[in-house]
């Protein structure tokens, strides 16, 4: 897993696109409409701009630390104790993120084609792929993603275009939804939609240069913002608020509406293949990074012996919520409200302290010489 | 106790023992904190499923 493995900008961008924009096929459009009503698309645009500003700031702070991930930075800040603290925070966050995403994907696949199948049985199939992906390692995963991501982007584009004739542009009015306060003040918490940028800060040793880091971040945020805004606009225009917020899986409901003549009906059965592949890529990568963070935090030599114990933990945690409603509520309350504290605030604080320490060291060196 | 639960229990025990083996190997390599943390993970991966299988209902 180690720094001997290096991959290019496109591979890293594909990974980031998968990690950030996957929620577009889960509950992202509904969350936007719940918070900002008909201005859901404006909220997606707003959080994308906030994410871009956050990344510009992080990019500036990261300049002197090329090739170092967030765990290396925390070691610079406070040696082993801070590294262990940051690693533990990341671990808890990633375990919760992966568990609840696994549950949502399982429920989505169940809703799409396996209505009477027990959720734990669907998990077993997903899990075989996840364990295999994580076992193969980051290089196999990113190479696979670099091939699949263009196909999923293309299929997403066709999906949005196919919906367009059914939409009604009048649904986006009133433009500011339930008011500017809800969109621009309360809505800023939804910056957590980009919290998966944390994977980029863990990816740095694999992409090495600061230039790669910068371009990967900008491209990923740019493409994901297009995905988020387009799906939210399409959803708002298809289902008027407040009826829209009753749909647990907006993208699935939208896919069911596609109907072109005699032969192109119920396209969700085709989309299940693409979406299951996205689920596999997202969950395998997130699971791999749980092992990576654990290995790096506690200076372990191998990560593969930990595949099964962590797999069991995630499997069980994802089954803890008693219903889909409870899962969605938990995800909304904690991960999507406070995820930004890990994805942005923690990183910025660590980088500011690391920069101060670095400049102090420089000053001390100059004065002594 | 049904047969499926017994099979699951045996699998959990097997994973636990394998992970403990890795924890001991790490401990022997002078990485005590690493060994302890792997042990904690192994214990959680044994207790949590048993709790949710037998006591949650």
Task: Give an overview in words.
The complex is a heterodimer of chains A (369) and B (57). With 369 residues, chain A is mainly alpha-helical. Chain A has a single domain (9-368), classed as Amino acid/polyamine transporter I, CATH 1.20.1740.10. Chain A contains 13 helices and two strands. Chain A has helices at residues 9-21, 28-36, 40-61, 70-113, 119-136, 138-163, 180-185, 198-207, 210-238, 250-257, 268-297, 307-319, 324-368; strands spanning 259-260, 264-265. Chain A has a two-stranded antiparallel ribbon with strand order 1-2. The longest helix of chain A is centred in the last third of the chain and has 45 residues, at 324-368. Chain A is globular and about 80 Å long. The model of chain A has no long low-confidence stretch (mean pLDDT 91). By secondary structure, chain B is mostly helical. Chain B has one domain (3-55). Chain B has two helices and no strands. Chain B is elongated and about 40 Å long. Chain B starts with a helix and ends with a helix. At the A-B interface, helix 12 of A face helix 1 and helix 2 of B.
């Amino acid at each position: 897993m180690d720094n001997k493995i290096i991959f290019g900008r496109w591979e890293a961008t594909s990974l980031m696109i998968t990690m950030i924009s996957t929620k577009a096929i889960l509950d992202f459009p509904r969350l936007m409409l719940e918070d900002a009503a008909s201005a859901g698309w404006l909220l997606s645009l707003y959080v994308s701009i906030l994410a871009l500003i956050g990344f510009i700031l992080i990019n500036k702070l990261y300049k002197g630390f090329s090739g170092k991930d967030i765990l290396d930075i925390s070691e610079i800040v406070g040696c082993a104790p801070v590294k262990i603290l940051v690693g533990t925070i990341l671990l808890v966050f990633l375990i919760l993120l992966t568990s609840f995403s696994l549950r949502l994907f399982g429920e989505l696949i169940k809703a799409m084609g396996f209505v009477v199948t027990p959720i734990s049985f669907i998990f077993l199939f997903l899990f075989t792929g996840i364990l295999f992906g994580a076992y193969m390692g980051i290089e196999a995963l990113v190479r696979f993603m670099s091939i699949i991501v263009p196909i999923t982007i293309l299929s997403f584009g066709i999906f949005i275009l196919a919906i367009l004739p059914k939409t009604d542009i009048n649904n986006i009015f009133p433009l500011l939804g339930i008011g500017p306060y809800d969109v621009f003040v309360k809505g800023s918490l939804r910056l957590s939609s980009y919290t998966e940028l944390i994977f980029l800060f863990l990816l740095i040793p694999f992409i090495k240069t600061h230039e790669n880091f910068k371009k990967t971040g900008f491209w990923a945020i740019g493409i994901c913002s297009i995905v988020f805004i387009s799906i939210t606009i399409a959803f708002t225009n298809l289902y008027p608020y407040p009826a829209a917020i009753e749909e647990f899986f907006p993208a699935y409901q939208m896919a069911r509406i596609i109907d072109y003549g005699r032969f192109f009906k119920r396209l969700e059965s085709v989309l299940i293949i693409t979406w299951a592949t996205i689920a596999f890529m997202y969950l395998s990568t997130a699971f791999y990074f749980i092992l990576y963070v654990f290995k790096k935090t506690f200076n372990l030599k191998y990560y593969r012996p930990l595949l099964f114990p962590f797999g069991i933990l995630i499997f069980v945690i994802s089954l803890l919520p008693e219903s889909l409603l409870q899962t969605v509520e938990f995800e909304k309350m904690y991960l999507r409200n406070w995820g930004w504290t890990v994805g942005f605030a923690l990183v910025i604080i660590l980088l500011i302290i690391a920069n101060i320490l670095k400049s102090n060291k420089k000053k001390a060196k100059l004065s002594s010489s | 106790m049904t047969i499926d639960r017994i099979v699951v229990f045996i699998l959990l025990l097997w994973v636990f023992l394998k992970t403990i083996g890795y924890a001991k190997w790490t401990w022997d390599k002078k990485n005590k904190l690493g060994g302890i943390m792997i042990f904690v993970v192994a214990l959680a991966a044994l207790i949590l499923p048993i709790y949710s299988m037998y006591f949650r209902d």
